[in-house]
Structures are given as C-alpha cells and as structure tokens.
Amino acid sequence: MAGVVELLSLNNPVFKSYVFWAGVLVIKMLLMSLLTAVQRFKTKTFANPEDLMSPKLKVKFDDPNVERVRRAHRNDLENIVPFFIIGLLYTLTNPSVFLAVNLFRAVGIARIVHTIVYAVVVVPQPSRALAFFVALGATVYMALQVILAAAF
C-alpha cells in the first residue's frame, strides 16, 4: 500500500485532481460573495446602515434577488465544505484514479452548474436538483468508501 506521503503528493494523480477541484471550488465560493455584492448594489439592498449610499435608502433584508444568491452561497457552504474534508480522506484510501478523478470532476462541475441555474440564470427544476444530487451522490459515495476503508 502506498504511504501517506506518496498519496498526498502532486505526483499522485488522485491528489492532484483533488487539489485542482478544491481550488476551483474555493474560487467559486469566493465569487459568490462578489455576486451577492453585485446584487446588493443592483437592487440597492443593504443590510447595514453604514452601507447605505443615500439617506433616502433604508436597511433591507428581503430582496428576492439578493436572497437567492445568499441561499446559493449557503448551499455551497453546506455541501462544498464536506467535499473538502471527505475528498481529502478519500484520497488516502488509494482509490482508482479513473473513479476518483471523475468523482472530483462531477462534484466540481455539478456545484458550478448548481450556482448557474440557481443564482445566475434561473432555470426551472429539476436542473438545480439534478446538479445538487450529482454532487451529493459523489460525496456520499466517497464518505462510504472512507468509512469502509477505516472499518476494515
């Protein structure tokens, strides 16, 4: 069995793929903050009095465009953070390169698609649900493999 040092090396294609997709998803989540700010300025919806650009504006918490982006961002936090943890642990199980690379790819692409169809260009269901369940399914599969590897 490969040692931890070899598994957590950029010479390992599984770890290299994990690092790539983790980096992509970090950037994606950071961009969600900017997308929230863009929506706030577009709709003049600010949650703090010091952010108001005019004395005529009032603090507002319920703009549907801002809240949609915030919900998408929260969904990222609820789903991408577990992927970061389990993806790294999955790498330590020395999985099949083909399967691992495609699981990481599926999670990354599905989370990007989820954001696009939820917060950028709103597309009716089941588009968002499909993207959500692809990423969830891949993450759950990796979690089960980690559990099985640790249990036996």
TrEMBL record:
Transmembrane segments: none annotated. InterPro entries: MAPEG-like_dom_sf, Membr-assoc_MAPEG, MGST1-like. GO terms for cellular component: endoplasmic reticulum membrane; mitochondrial outer membrane. It is an enzyme of class 2 (transferase). It is a multi-pass membrane protein. It is found in: Endoplasmic reticulum membrane; Mitochondrion outer membrane. Keywords: Acetylation, Endoplasmic reticulum, Membrane, Mitochondrion, Mitochondrion outer membrane, Transferase, Transmembrane, Transmembrane helix. GO terms for molecular function: glutathione transferase activity. Homotrimer; The trimer binds only one molecule of glutathione. Belongs to the MAPEG family. Conjugation of reduced glutathione to a wide number of exogenous and endogenous hydrophobic electrophiles. This is Microsomal glutathione S-transferase 1. It comes from Drosophila pseudoobscura pseudoobscura (Fruit fly). The gene is Mgstl.
